[in-house]
Amino acid sequence: MRCFVTGAAGFIGSNLVDRLLRDGHQVCGYDNFSTGQRRFLAEAVQHRDFRLVEADLLDREALNAAVKGHEIVFHLAANADVRFGTQDPSRDLQQNTIATFNVLEAMRAGGARRIVFSSTGSIYGEPLVFPTPEDAPFPVQTSLYGASKLAGEGLIQAYCTGFDFQGFIFRFVSILGPRYTHGHVFDFYRKLLDDPSQIQVLGNGKQRKSYLHVEDCLAAILMCVEKSRDPLQVFNLGTDEYCTVDQSLGWICQHVGLTPQRRYTGGERGWIGDSPFIFLDTRKIRSMGWRASHDIKSSVIGTLEYLKQNEWVLSRH
Amino acid sequence: MRCFVTGAAGFIGSNLVDRLLRDGHQVCGYDNFSTGQRRFLAEAVQHRDFRLVEADLLDREALNAAVKGHEIVFHLAANADVRFGTQDPSRDLQQNTIATFNVLEAMRAGGARRIVFSSTGSIYGEPLVFPTPEDAPFPVQTSLYGASKLAGEGLIQAYCTGFDFQGFIFRFVSILGPRYTHGHVFDFYRKLLDDPSQIQVLGNGKQRKSYLHVEDCLAAILMCVEKSRDPLQVFNLGTDEYCTVDQSLGWICQHVGLTPQRRYTGGERGWIGDSPFIFLDTRKIRSMGWRASHDIKSSVIGTLEYLKQNEWVLSRH
User: Fold this and answer.
1) Which residues contact B189 (CB under 8 A, 6 or more apart)?
2) B123 and B90, same structural domain?
3) In this complex, is the C-beta atom of A136 within 8 Å of any C-beta atom belonging to chain B?
4) Helix pair B245-256, B184-194: axis angle to 10 deg
5) Which of A89, A97, A136 comes nearest B151 by C-beta?
6) Considering the domain boundaries, does residue A289 fall inside one?
7) CB of B135 less than 8 A from some CB of A
8) Which residues of A111-139 are buried (b: 16+ CB within 10 A; e: fewer)?
9) How far apart are CA B10 and CA B117, in angstroms?
10) Contact, A172 vs A119, CB < 8 A?
11) Alpha-carbon distance B238 to B163, whole Å?
């Protein structure tokens, strides 16, 4: 396939680029390097089937030119941090909603018709059903990030009906693994390096969350792209388990051999819009034959190992 | 209340302006007159409690200045035509999604915290449950219009969580009544004036749709605004009945005394993204004490009477 990957220098994007190249595909990566890391593409840029375009998704001219000639777009670029939406609401609108619109328009202009979209379990807001299935009751958004991903999903769905696109929407839980650059393992590890004696925990530590290893995430996506002929598919991606923030912090402390005093900021939510319980029903993707091969604990520890071996990542933020 | 109405010169907006002024409120109307009609505000502009701002919602400076000092915003401005989304996808993005974002940001800057939003039953796509309740299974969008209203809903919901806004989201069926300027009664009546001997019907005529009179629509909205203290409310608005396109055309033909030959374009849908069956569950709004006082047939005929007495409206499009 002639593949186009937005956010190619990001955590998931760069892992996808490497996987697609290994599988023998031609890949064009697109990134503005606002959060993407050149080192994540160090191997890819040596590959003859890889091309890198350094540009912004809000630059429609550059985007239209770059998308042209590709068969499938993996649209992973996003403002991926759910926590800071209220500090600058325009960021989610621009980088997620409008950027997704621009990608769809570039595809329409350039003849690409297949799109894979990284959506989020945050789109369910604070669901009433657990594990939460894809057809859960119409949710209420609790974060600007979730709202912007919902807008992106809606656009893709409308393009599937209106312009005969084929859309694959994946609602991720938090993803872990090599090249992980933000999230709770990152935050906790950095805090422990700063001060091994005590650690601040956002909320009461009892928030329940699910996590998925990036390899499992990519395996699910590529299996669906290969197997499905439906015009539109929406899949939850996650593991069939969850852990509390406290549990995860326990694994991290044990692994690094520290026993910091935990200081809780309190409350059921770590920040405005934090969902106290994220646990997705993954029966649909499993019915296609996919299974997660990493459990949460091993993913957390693997991520920690990656951060220990790549401490340069910690200083980039 | 110090009320701010976007789309004040539109069908629903101008009816709302008149109603708010009758109820003794101060009203600022905002319209770019792209589809709004000055004649709809002829009475309002004579009123000492009315002020008109002629500007675009994409002009953030004008909008911020105008919103300042108001308590509640009735955000009715929109590209309201679901049919032509694929001709120019940027229109729904700009006029619905981004315009709603601009309204929210102007409110945040100007200290307004209550917002009423005109959403749509089209947001349910092609639902599987009838009548369709507010918490129907998470829908799939089938039109750019629906996708843009979904994006607007999500933004408002996120502002309720993130910035302590109070949001009222109303998902309308098609609205009928005085100052009606687009939709099937408008189209059929204009076609019959052009050629009384035959009439083209989009689709197979068997599409089932629900309609609501604008007076009932406004009564529901104002009742909720008065009664509800919840931070966020989502309500379907419609009648507890539906009719087919063929039935409605029958009432229209009978009322104007014509028997045109019907020519169907065929298919279950009148256009790309047309939903063959729209029928909303209104138990939630009825549980607040509201009842529709007009049935569909009388609303269709009343609308036709309005168009007959105001044929200038037909030539405006």
Assistant:
1) B252, B256, B304, B307, B308, B314
2) yes
3) yes
4) 50
5) A97
6) no
7) yes
8) ebbbbbbbbbbbbbbbbeeebbbbbbbbb
9) 15
10) yes
11) 30
- Mean pLDDT over B218-240 rounds to 96
The answer to whether residue B127 neighbours chain A at the CB level (below 8 Å) is no
Task: For residue B287, tell me if it sits in a domain.
Answer: no
Measured between alpha carbons, how far is residue A141 from residues A125, A146, A238, B154, B162 in Å?
5, 6, 20, 5, 10
Tokens of B218: 């406004």
**A103, A150, A165, A269: best to mutate for the B interface, most B CBs within 10 A:** A150
Q: How does DSSP classify residue A133?
A: P
CA distance A299 to B2: 54
In this prediction, residue B83 has a pLDDT band, given cuts at 50, 70 and 90, of confident
Mean pLDDT for the stretch of residues A247-267: 96
SS3 content of chain A, % helix, strand, coil (to 5): 45, 20, 35
Chain A residues touching residue B134 (CB < 8 angstroms): 138
Range of the domain at B249: 182-209+241-278+294-316
Phi first, then psi, for residue A116 (nearest 5°) are -110, 130
Residue B56 domain flag: yes
For residues B251 and B136, membership in a common domain is answered with no
Average pLDDT over residues B292-306: 97
Nearest of B81, B90, B97, B131 to residue B270 by alpha carbon? B81
Reported as a single tens digit per residue, the pLDDT across B49-59 is 999 999 999 99
Tell me the three state secondary structure of residue B75. strand
| B294/B291 Cα distance (integer angstroms) | 9
Q: Which residues contact B61 (CB under 8 A, 6 or more apart)?
A: none
A101 and A191 share one domain = no
d(CA B88, CA B78): 15
Contact B89 A98 (CB under 8 A): no
Residue A132 in contact with partner chain B when CB distance is under 8 A:
no
The C-alpha torsion from B85 through B88 and B90 to B96, rounded to 10°, is -40
> Which amino acid is residue B30, in one-letter code?
Y
Distances (CA, A) of B31 to B46, B162, B292: 17, 28, 28
The secondary structure element, H or E, covering residue A216 is helix A214-227
Nearest to A141 among B144, B146, B154 (CB): B154
The closest alpha carbon to A209, from A170, A246, A264, belongs to A246
Q: Is B147–A162 a contact, with Cβ atoms under 8 angstroms apart?
A: no
Looking at A58-212, list the stretches that DSSP marks H as alpha helix, in order from N- to C-terminal side: 60-67, 89-92, 99-110, 144-163, 184-194
With H, G, I as helix, E, B as strand and everything else as coil, classify residue A72. strand
User: pLDDT tens, B87-127?
Assistant: 899 999 999 999 999 999 999 999 999 999 999 999 999 99
Contacts A89 to B, Cβ<8 Å: 101, 104-105, 158-159, 162
- Which residue type occupies A223? M
Here the CATH number for the domain that contains residue A271 is 3.90.25.10
Closest CA to A11 of A50, A42, A53, A40: A40
Instruction: Please check whether residues B73 and B99 belong to one and the same domain.
Output: yes
The pTM of the full predicted model, rounded to 2 decimals, is: 0.96
> How many domains, chain A?
2
Please name the residue that has the structure tokens 């009648």: B239
- Give the CA radius of gyration of chain A: 19
Query: Which neighbouring-strand residues pair with B3?
Result: B27, B72
